[in-house]
Amino acid sequence: MSSLYIQAAGMVTCVGLDAASSCAAMRGRLDGFAESRFMGPDGEWLKGAAVPLPRNWIGLKRMAHLAAGALADLRRQHHAALDGAPILLCLAEETRPGRPIADPAALAGLLADILGLTTPPRLQIIAHGRPSGFVALDRARRLIAAGEDPVVILGLDSYLTAQSIAHYLGQNRLLHPANANGFIPGEAAAAILCTAAPGPLRVAGLGLAREPAHIYNTEGENGQPLPMRAEGMTRAHEMALAQAGCRHSDLVLKMGDLIGEAYWFKQMALAMLRLQRERSSVQPIWSLAASLGNIGAAAGPVLLAWAMTAAVRGYVPPGPIILEASGDDGACGAAVVHRT
To answer: How many CB atoms lie within 10 A of CB 67?
Structure first.
């Protein structure tokens, strides 16, 4: 693939209001889990991973302040980051109940007001949920090859909405005392600056695929779920590794969204079993959900920001790192990155 580098990153999460503090907290395995304002089926307050904002904004205004915080953090590191650069906005799937942003144009107007921009930013919407960041990397690569340099990728999402909580409680997918196989709803925003000029992190390979046996599938015999063989994630890994010119056994680290349910851990394990052909040392796994819960479409940019910060700070070993994220509809994304 053509050269694509990550130059800088900004972040707002439940464990930090900028990229430096968020990555330090995730490195230390700290989390931002606390009682939310939503009640579970047992009458106890559900755990959530809300961002501690200075005011109790809700709805679109809250999302705008999350996004503005990430973009402001990015601008502090790279002053020209928002000077006319297109912003690839990663959002929740359009079919997801309770998606927090229904009007991206209104979001652009609020961002301009909060950040003091003369004109609203140029947004391009990528609404594929958790794998959106990997789709955005592919689009950023094409834009940069066409002469549009730099490009900003902004991930923004929240599961802490009344509709989302009601839906996933009904699906028995939230973590609470009666359900250990669930996820903690969270929210976050992350912005990364992509360029063709060399930077701290190089994106060496990218893979996009779809899993037929996704978590909601009923396409087997008599409406039963298909057996999950991780075909989608395996294919995404194969594509990313082939573009990067390395093998699975060359990887030194894996990073993923791994939102908390057993399905996603099985998917990662099966993909590894299908691709590992040579003996290698144990590859550590860093999970976003261990600190941030399920942050939806912000997962891809947060993974890239964390990998870049780890590379700059020197606490990641030299060698290829694979990042992955997958959605409830079977969309799978993977990327191989190197520190430079």
So the answer is: 29
pLDDT digits (tens, 9 = 90+) for 216-243: 987 766 777 888 999 999 999 999 999 9
Q: How far is the C-alpha of 160 from the C-alpha of 157, rounded, in Å?
A: 9
Helix, coil or strand: residue 58: coil
Structure tokens at 120: 């609203």
pLDDT, tens digit, for every residue of 297-340?
Answer: 999 999 999 999 999 999 988 899 999 999 999 999 999 999 88
Q: What is the pTM of this model?
A: 0.95
- Taking alpha carbons only, the member of 79, 77, 51, 83 closest to residue 64 is 51
From 143, 243, 149, select the one nearest 199 (Cα to Cα): 149
Residues 198-211, buried b or exposed e (16+ Cβ, 10 A)? ebbbbbbbbbbbbb
The DSSP code for 147 is T
CA 131 to CA 104: how far, in whole Å? 19
